[in-house]
Amino acid sequence: MIRPLIAQALHSLRHQKLSQDIAFSLGSFAVLAISGIVINIVITVFRDAAALGVFNIAYAVYIVASQVAVWGLHYSVLRHAAYHASDQEARGHMLLTAAVCSIAMGLGAGAVVFQAEPLFAVAFNSETTGAAIRNTALGLTVFPLNKVLIAYLNGLREMRAYAVLQALRYLMIMALVALVAASSLPIEVSTFCFFVAELLTLVTACLYIASRRLVGTLGFRRSWVVRHYQFGTKALAAGLFTEVNSRVDVLMIGIFLSDRATGIYSFAAMLVDGVYHVLAMVRINFNPILVAAIRDRDWRTVLNLRRQARRIVLPVTIVLALGLIATYYVFTAWVMPSEKGLLEGLPSLAILLGGLTLICFLVPFDNLLMVSGHPGYQTLQQLVLVVTNITVAVLLLPLLGIEGAALGTAVSYVAGVLTMAIFANRLLGWNLFTNTIRSAE
């Protein structure tokens, strides 16, 4: 049974662009996973759980702030790049307009975060954390432009370049954080890594787009400003809520508990993020295909994607989850010094992986409402996700500690998928659970 599956996979990799693109994306994810693990281990070994908590809180704030900075423009670029894949002139106007808007948004967001350092220091009861967040402001000035450029490549299904750019960013962050952690520099210096990584990514992305002539005549158009901000404003909250939900557990532990508790939990949550990113790599490759298929009412392609996801994603996720739980126990119980306290994160890891496994086969369609042209409904879906997460965590954190935060995130996974399925059935006539099309409204 295993041999035919391997043969089928090899044939698919040789002859199908989607399989090749997913393979490259998973290679990028491997770099992300290794980078995240190295960062967490290096900081914990050379510093302590409190220092790890400082870095991860700053990183969480950076990710959330970056979503505000880009204002959903990257979602507009992704959809319109795929929609106008055969119209190079339209794409040139669309891309340059989005790039100019993103530069302005990045500069504004960076200035706000820099000036807000005292507020962060008070909110997290730590001057070190406030300084670490302040240092991310430089990265924020460049991040929105990179999101736009990478989304453009995603829309054109230039997934090899997409994967390389993402891997390059992760490797740079890992290298710089490791150097700071192993040095005598204050831990807050490590968050300057985001600026260096974004700058390198920007230069590389521009060179690739120019060398491959992926745009026609560049031009700034007010009509595209309106279209981008109309779409982006509706999509903003969706992207923001998505990132908030992936970091809200860490942020709430940072507010209600201690830097040490945040460090222990974030070490475990980092591994779950890794599994989620495996699923996200599939989603990223599905997005432009879904745009074109729904535009052309090609329901056969849509249903086939869903079948592939169920057949492959669920067993892979189960294996990954069980392997991570076993590996985490061995590593934290037998390799890491007991005084680091990382073994305390094992129950949270099991809870998070359990919740993700339940809905894993639908995660590749998590942007379905966005790419089908319904960003407002995508926002509602993500709002349900965040509200559920925060509500359950607030109720359970005082009783269960970090496990309460884990339960909040696990329950939110299920709530988000159920909401998406309801909207997909209503708007597209697509029942995601039975994988049937009722109508093509």
TrEMBL record:
Broad class of where this protein is predominantly found: membrane
One Pfam family recorded for the sequence: Polysacc_synt_3
Protein localization: Cell membrane
One GO term describing the cellular component: plasma membrane
Keyword DNA-binding: no
Residues that span the membrane, as ranges: 21-43, 49-73, 94-116, 136-155, 167-183, 189-210, 312-331, 351-371, 383-400, 406-428
Membrane topology annotation: Multi-pass membrane protein
Domain of life (superkingdom): Bacteria
Keywords assigned by UniProt, alphabetized: Cell membrane, Membrane, Transmembrane, Transmembrane helix
Entry protein name: Polysaccharide biosynthesis protein
